[in-house]
Amino acid sequence: MHNQISIDGKLDGFEVDMGSYYGVAAGFRPDATLVGSGTVLKAVAEIPPEEPSDFRKPEISPDDPNGYVVFVDSRGLIRCHHIFRRFEMIKDVIVLVSSSTPREYIRYLDDREYDHIEAGEDKVDLEKAMGLLNERYGFETIRNDAGAILNSVMLEKGLIDEISLLLSPELVGKEHTSMFGPLSCRVKLRLKSSEILEMGLIHLLYEVVK
Predict the structure, then answer these.
(1) Fewer CB atoms inside 10 A, N or C side of the chain?
(2) Does residue 203 contact residue 150 with C-beta atoms inside 8 Å?
(3) Same domain, 131 and 167
């Protein structure tokens, strides 16, 4: 799990240092980045029209060092996959769905040659999905770049091994989004490293004690 947060544990209300954020993230050398549908919809302000090339799966070299982006989208809300497919630092997009995902959305993905994995009935069964990502694609390291709900669920399911935090020197107040939703369990952490970065940022890396 990798997030930049304020001193009072919020995900927004401050300016994210993109250089530091992605510089730290790249150091983990993830096979894929996991993102929830809410985070994607919040991040994408404008969706450009699709082009014919957006309907074809890109050619991927075995030596390509870039990773995949994996969307968690059981309700079929995301319709901007092509933006991410165009990024040079991304191999392609994979979508996690459930058996209740609208069939129209599955057709949308198939028409554009996006790989999708069905796991779970109502919501995505994240434990099963992580196993299938490993089985089908060989993923060993996945970076969770998500919001409060997905962060909490991943922790509750025991699917997080490390928590990486970029701590911004700001307090933004209660009206902003907390890093975690209500947790149903206690999670104990062990500090692995700390580093002072530019602009007053501090990088903290914790191991989840299981």
Answers:
(1) C
(2) no
(3) no
